[in-house]
Model the fold of this input.
Amino acid sequence: MTTAAAVALVAALTVGWDLGWWAAGVRPLSPRQVERLEGAWLVDVRTPGEFAWRHVPGAENLPGGRGLTAAAAAHPKDRPVVVICFSGHRSPFAALRLRRAGFQRVYNLTGGMAGYLAWKALSR
Done:
């Protein structure tokens, strides 16, 4: 774990998960906000099995963030990026890597896919 990730993790555990990552430049984004965010690059860091089960339409699967640096090179740094995992606890680490790579608008899906699926079920 890099020093920046360790500092962000300590801040997240100390002051609250979303607030700690916010301080590191990773913004929380609700499922409703994700659906309204136009032109975003959706990065899903879950395993291939989790991704195959369910995923946000249009998401790209980069399990554990592998291949993230190469994939990031194909996207403009001012494009919004939403990073997704199952519960919202794995994705901030990949989101922080994207912030450090120069992406300006990096978001973590609050509640992850679990929150997204619950929101979809409740909004029907």
Q: What stands out?
A: The first helix runs from residue 3 to 15. DSSP finds seven helices and five strands in the chain.
